[in-house]
Amino acid sequence: MADPTAALPAGTDPARTGAGADPARWPDVARVPAAPLRAAVAGRLLARIARRHGLRVELPDGRPMVAAPAGAPVLRLHRPGDFLRRIGAGGLIGFGESYQAGDWDSPDLVALLTALAADPAALVPPGTHWLRRLYVQRPPATERGSSRYTRRNIQRHYDLSNDLFALFLDRTMSYSAALFPTDLTSGAPLADWAALPTAQHRKIDRLLDLAGVGPGRTVLEIGTGWGELAIRAARRGARVVSLTLSAEQLALARRRIAEAGLADRAEVRLCDYRSAEGSYDAVVSVEMIEAVGRSYWPAYFATLDRVLAPGGRVALQSITMPHRRMLATTDTYTWILKYIFPGGQIPSTEGLAEAAARHSSLRLTEDQGFGPHYAETLRLWRERFTDRSEEVAALGFDPVFERMWELYLAYSEAGFRTGYLDVRQLLLTREDGR
């Protein structure tokens, strides 16, 4: 095996600046940590992972670190020393930061990440899982989902720029899993860009049906997005109050609702879910609970219980992960939390059902999943985002940001392709029908 650490200076390993990253904007991407011993360990671990997962890890001259089968997913190292220092010092956070810095690349990023995501527990050698506590970080207190910090967490992602999101979302401006028609033989989603708006409406309509939204019903939406669900619900004759903490989304959602002629039926408020007021026949929320954080599920479900009218229904759409993995990764600071969704926690269906039962009178009564459809949704977004790279740059986003979003979209797609992640629509009702 070629040793990518062999060319590193013996005895010294000073931290230095990563290529091309603005230290003021990206301090942990710009700085390459000094970690010679951990880098050596990371090199050996990388070789083990490559063998176990059938990966081709290429050095800058094109030589492979280890033999790999034909057609193997490729991890191409441009700066092996920097890559291993970052991995050794920061684990998976370092892995993401090294991609942002351009230390490595892949001709098929999704294929590489799918291979790695297929068995995440196997990335750590047997008998060494206890070492996680030595290098895994906990999320900062300032990124918890408390009423003090939640708005800032939301703004860091959703207030980047409405124009940015419009570059890769379809005309419905829906930033959640679409529900495509399926092939009658294979059951695979039939996904292409032209089908995406209709598939987004199909997803929304199924959730509204689940919640029993129709003429004369009152609806509370938690997490407005850019207003498409509120518009669909209002067109059914419902009266909608929608809550958001994003000033950018608030402005555009209000404008879109007004342009649809539905301002008398749908109202958008800048409001934390904990401060929701009123009583509603239905509560709906699409992929917002992931931003709540497990510590705040009691407050979340207590709020749903408080605002739900007698006989009402709650319909949630949530990304989920297996329960054991959720428990194992709770309070773990990840690259996604650091750079994409601060304060978040992907739940398990079991975790949500348990929290609802413990902290409200609500019970999970229906559960429908469509994870492969999210993989296809993300593929369409990712292809659109990368195809419009020049327009992303014209909005003022630098190459480090672009690589960060490419990795985020590809990483998420890989999670759904392996089944490590799923997306589900959940119905909660009161146990006694009240």
What features would you describe in this structure?
This protein is α/β, with parallel strands linked by helices and 434 residues long. The protein has two domains: 16-135, no CATH class; 144-335 and 343-430, Rossmann fold (3-Layer(aba) Sandwich). 43% of the residues lie in helices and 15% in strands. The protein has 17 helices and twelve strands. It has helices spanning 27-30, 36-53, 80-101, 109-117, 132-135, 150-158, 162-168, 196-211, 228-235, 247-259, 297-307, 323-329, 335-339, 349-359, 371-387, 389-394, 399-418, and strands at 16-17, 31-32, 56-58, 74-77, 104-105, 218-222, 239-244, 266-270, 280-286, 308-320, 362-369, 422-430. A seven-stranded mixed β-sheet has the order 8-7-6-9-10-12-11, sandwiched between helices. 45% of the residues are buried.
Strand content: 15-25%
The tally of structural domains comes to 2
The CATH homologous superfamily of the largest domain: Vaccinia Virus protein VP39
CATH class of the largest domain: Alpha Beta
Structural classification: alpha/beta
Adjacency order of strands in the biggest sheet: 8-7-6-9-10-12-11
Order of helices and strands: EHEHEEHEHHHHHEHEHEEHEHHHEHHHE
Features of the shown structure:
434 residues; three-stranded mixed beta sheet; 17 helices; Rossmann fold; seven-stranded mixed beta sheet; alpha/beta
